């Protein structure tokens, strides 16, 4: 394809081709510090094609596809090209990755131990991981946590952080370096979105796994509350939060069983970012 | 050109030595797009490949093994549901290859093969009983449109597809191997009579009839989507140990003629011989089988290889032509006109 870029994020590598220059230029700027795939060979191909040949020029509209695609993928505006590329990479991981058990979770690490946060879009896990990533934790990802079925370790997938709506202003106030932000994408299917590049240390250390230590089910916009979640409920919720649990078969079952039986889990409700940070601090310190 | 890379790698695994990174990307994208990545992964087992390629192929082998396991379990469930009817139940296509116990044989079509739906063949006079037994065992209709449903029942070679409500797997129940509206009229009773029993009660078609069915499916029915995969099946079937015997091609062509399928089978052999080097012998007597390509074969080859280095479909106009051809094969023109008009009114647009 005419416009292309290849990059490595954690253990996975992608080549992304687009019919337009702009999305690839955005990727090149924001993924500047990410290494190229080893030997130039990528695990996945992502394509940003016009939905119809003429829609390359007239009212440009992106069809996200690649090695793996969805028949009913919604077309995206060219102005949201960066988001389309991110969704394209997520799609390949969700449908094609087999080397780890994929959990739809945000993840941060401190002292080699990992805190995982899982929940629906809007639960606050992305924002919380971004905030922790600016406060002495290593950001490991806000979309997928990768569990190694052989070792139980969690591997990083530190894509750009996808900040939504009110989280955008919150993080703009905390991150001084404007070059780490992508363009403000208004009016996407999930409202306003702005991408944030993780700190340099998160990228430099992205191939280092961590040992899972705590699992949280955050819920934003509620009065403060903490509730332990038993292993059975964890298991059920995580099978639903995993896109490849079924595809991994027995290995997935063993990996997830071991995870829920060894990692303590809490559901936390919070009305704002600061109370969430305080809750995380308390629960983390109580682990030792 | 990436589909050509894929054909070369399948035909001669050693040919991947010295591929550049860009060529590997193209080969992998084409193999995934043609759903031949599992097949490629098994073909390249034991061949030296770059470190970044190894896990990609290992993943594909893992997926293929799981798919075969799932397909065989689905066949087992269908067998259990249909056992009380005491009729022959014949597995077709991917599941048949897996069930034939050839998973470990070299150059088996089952090795790494993508398996989508469960396809079975039953005698036509048992269709109503089969349908009732499957509905009873948890399969459900997925074609809510009354026109589609009626079309299947009146003109097709299979029931409208059913999906199992718990396992979410689709079953296609065939009563013959080509739509009733197609010109060739295979003698399906003879094929059922010649089918082979597997341990466990299910059956598969004879080797000759498996090739006939694959060729009919590829060249006398569809629009050549997935053509490289279907042709690889034919290549493997014709290269299998049973087919190595001297007179296999003769008996294959004899069966093809008997079932009105001499032309598609001969073309399939020419294309497979040309692309994959399938070991078939040319004959002039007692039958004539000329393996030299005909001018029209060039169109088929171009269509089969219409895939670029990003896995994208190329030759759009030719693809459209084969799409139209698939409909002409299925229906006489007046019927096709009526069908297209009905579909158009319902908002269906091709491609």
From TrEMBL, chain A:
This is HprK-related kinase A. Keywords: Kinase, Transferase. InterPro entries: HprK-rel_A, P-loop_NTPase, Sigma_54_int_dom_ATP-bd_1. The keyword Kinase applies. Transmembrane segments: none annotated. Signal peptide: none annotated. GO terms for molecular function: kinase activity. The keyword Kinase applies.
Automatic annotation (TrEMBL), chain B:
It comes from the Bacteria. It comes from Sphingobium algorifonticola. This is Nucleotidyltransferase family protein. The lineage of its organism: Bacteria, Pseudomonadati, Pseudomonadota, Alphaproteobacteria, Sphingomonadales.
């Amino acid at each position: 394809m005419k416009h292309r870029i290849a990059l490595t994020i954690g253990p996975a590598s992608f080549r992304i081709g687009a019919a337009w220059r702009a999305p690839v230029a955005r990727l090149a700027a924001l993924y500047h510090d990410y290494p190229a795939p080893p030997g130039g060979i990528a695990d996945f191909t992502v394509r940003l094609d016009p939905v119809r040949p003429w829609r390359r020029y007239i009212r440009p509209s992106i069809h996200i596809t690649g090695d793996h695609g969805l028949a009913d993928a919604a077309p995206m505006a060219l102005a949201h090209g960066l988001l389309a590329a991110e969704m394209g990479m997520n799609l390949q991981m969700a449908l094609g990755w087999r080397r780890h058990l994929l959990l739809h979770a945000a993840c941060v690490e401190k002292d080699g131990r990992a805190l995982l946060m899982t929940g629906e879009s809007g639960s606050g896990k992305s924002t919380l991981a971004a905030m922790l990533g600016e406060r002495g934790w290593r950001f490991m990802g806000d979309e997928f946590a990768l569990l190694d079925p052989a070792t139980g370790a969690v591997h990083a997938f530190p894509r750009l952080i996808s900040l939504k709506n009110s989280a955008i202003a919150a993080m703009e106030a905390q991150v001084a370096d404007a070059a780490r932000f992508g363009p403000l994408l208004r009016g996407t299917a999930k409202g306003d979105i702005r991408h944030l590049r993780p700190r340099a240390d998160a990228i430099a250390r992205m191939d280092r796994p961590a040992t899972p230590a705590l699992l949280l089910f955050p819920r934003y916009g509620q009065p403060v509350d903490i509730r332990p979640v038993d292993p059975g409920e964890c298991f059920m919720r995580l099978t639903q939060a995993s896109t490849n649990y079924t595809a991994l078969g027995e290995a997935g079952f063993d990996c997830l069983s071991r995870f829920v039986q060894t990692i303590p889990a809490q559901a936390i409700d919070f009305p704002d970012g600061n109370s969430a940070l305080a809750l995380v601090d308390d629960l983390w310190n109580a682990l030792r | 050109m990436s589909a050509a890379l894929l054909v070369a790698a399948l035909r001669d695994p050693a040919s991947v030595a010295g591929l550049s990174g860009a060529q590997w990307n193209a080969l992998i994208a084409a193999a995934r797009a043609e759903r031949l990545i599992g097949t490629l992964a098994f073909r390249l087992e034991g061949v030296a490949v770059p470190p970044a390629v190894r896990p990609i192929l290992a993943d594909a082998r893992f997926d293929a093994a799981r798919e075969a396991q799932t397909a065989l379990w689905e066949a087992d469930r269908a067998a259990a549901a249909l056992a009380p009817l005491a009729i022959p139940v014949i597995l077709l296509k991917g599941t048949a290859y897996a069930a034939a116990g050839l998973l470990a044989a070299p150059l088996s079509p089952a090795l790494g093969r993508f398996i989508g739906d469960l396809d079975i063949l039953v005698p036509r006079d048992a269709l109503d009983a089969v349908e009732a037994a499957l509905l009873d065992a948890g399969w459900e209709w997925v074609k809510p449109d009354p026109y589609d449903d009626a079309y299947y029942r009146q003109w097709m070679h299979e029931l409208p597809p059913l999906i199992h409500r718990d396992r979410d797997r689709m079953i296609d129940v065939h009563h013959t191997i080509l739509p009733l509206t197609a010109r060739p009229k295979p003698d399906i009773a003879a094929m059922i009579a010649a089918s082979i029993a597997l341990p466990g009660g299910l059956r598969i078609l004879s080797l000759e009839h498996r090739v006939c069915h694959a060729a009919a499916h590829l060249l006398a029915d569809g629009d050549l989507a997935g053509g490289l995969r279907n042709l690889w099946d034919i290549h493997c079937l014709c290269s299998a140990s049973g087919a190595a015997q001297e007179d296999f091609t003769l008996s294959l062509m004899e069966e093809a003629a008997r079932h009105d399928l001499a032309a598609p089978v001969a073309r399939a052999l020419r294309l497979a011989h040309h692309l994959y080097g399938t070991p078939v012998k040319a004959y002039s007597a007692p039958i004539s089988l000329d393996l030299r390509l005909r001018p029209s074969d060039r169109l088929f080859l171009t269509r089969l290889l219409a895939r670029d280095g990003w896995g994208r479909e190329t030759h759009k106009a030719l693809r459209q032509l084969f799409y139209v051809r698939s409909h002409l094969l299925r229906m006489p023109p007046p019927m096709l006109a009526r069908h297209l008009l009905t579909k158009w009114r319902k908002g269906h647009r091709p491609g």
